[in-house]
Amino acid sequence: MSTETFLSSLQHYLRHDLLKQVREKAWDHFLELGLPEKTDEAFRYVPLRCLYEQGFAKSAYTPSKEEVLSYIYPECQGSYLVFVDGVYTPELSDLSSLSKKIVALPIADAMRSYGPFLHSRWSKALKEEPDPFAMLNLAIHPQGLFFYVPPKVTIEKPIQTLFLSSQGSFAPARMQLFLAPQTEVQWISTIAGDGLHNTLLDVSLEEGASFQQTEVPVNGKGWHLNHFRATLKRDSRLKYFALTNGSRITRHSLRAELQGENADVLLQGLWDLSAGAHCHTHVFVEHAAPHARSLQKFKGVLKETSQSSFEGKIFVRPEAQKTEAYQLNHNLLLSEGAIAHAKPNLEIFADDVKASHGATFAQVDEEQLFYLKSRGISTEIASQLLIRGFMQEMIDQIPHNFVQSQVVSHVF
Fold it and tell me: What is the pLDDT of residue 226?
């Protein structure tokens, strides 16, 4: 399939609804950006030809309630949202355990009361979004989610968002989150299925708001194009963790803008890849206010013929004095066929800044392996212990114990 055929197949997903004007502008912007090519730095290592060979078909997939519940953590019962092939599906969702003050609506329904919020975010995206697949999501998402948390509401229970897809489907799911001042939300995203997931989570954090996001793949042989966008006002906090060990091809596109003083961003990830799996991570953190902090830390374990790439940028504007910003990427390669790329970089226009970046590539330490074997431990178990030691720092950073347990049981 050519890029022209791929593009034509996507055009069939355009809808004529209450969002028609926004969709048309987004589609035009998507066409201006164009489908990525190998010459595009942000997509240099993504196997685009395999993507453009994908064919999509409208699906009649309707999961049962039992199937949905099989993916829901016990800790998230009564606190979950379901998307099926990109469509927010309220009848399969359950928010009965959450505060009645929150608002969770299909985006089209939310337009009546919360239109100014939404149009403000979309206008920003239309002006600033550089990623064509993120813009494509705005143009053709079938039914997105609007989620609003009013001031001073703390949601103690984590909210799980389940994305299900059928084989051969295109699933552009969209979530628009607005956290009012002094709110706290924990969010877990679970990806399952063999389709092409093109998810986008756009969150606006007002003063003093706190948001914690965890990405957890379950199974599937499809693609996951994951987009996360966040703006942070004064004293707001963002923690993000992405685990990658499921989908065949995964690309994380993460952008955070620190707009207010004393905002704090922590972006972390761990990939554990085997066979021919890919994970590509592209991060952009913009400091636009003084006295703010950010940390990016990503680790990867690569086996067999797997591949990864990390490209991160810290951008500090002149007004963002007293910034603290750090960026790290560590990779452990366990075979000759495994390939990892890293390109951390800084762009700083303020003169009172603490910032650093770095990347490392390593193999299992032969001296450490020899030491363990000399204590009567087999080569296989000794290697597993060293790999576990490399990963443990990141596993400990996964926000929820029940997610940590799942990760440990899957990896080891």
Answer: 97
Distances (CA, A) of 278 to 30, 210, 295, 304: 25, 31, 24, 11
Of residues 231, 163, 161, the one with CA closest to residue 198: 163
Among 230, 217, 256, residue whose Cα is nearest residue 177: 230
The C-alpha atoms of residue 268 and residue 395 are separated, in whole angstroms, by 10
Question: What pLDDT is stored for residue 372 in this prediction?
Answer: 74
Q: Are 98 and 157 in contact (CB under 8 A)?
A: yes
Q: Amino acid identity of 233?
A: K
Decide if 240 contacts 203 (C-beta within 8 A): no
Give the model's pLDDT for residue 94.
98
Tell me which residues of the chain have a pLDDT lower than 70: 1, 219-220, 246-247, 370-371, 410-412
**Tokens at 270, concatenated:** 């761990």
- One DSSP character per residue, 235-278 reads T-EEEEEEEESSSSEEEEEEEEEE-STT-EEEEEEEEEE-TT-E
| Residue 349 CB neighbours (<10 A) | 12
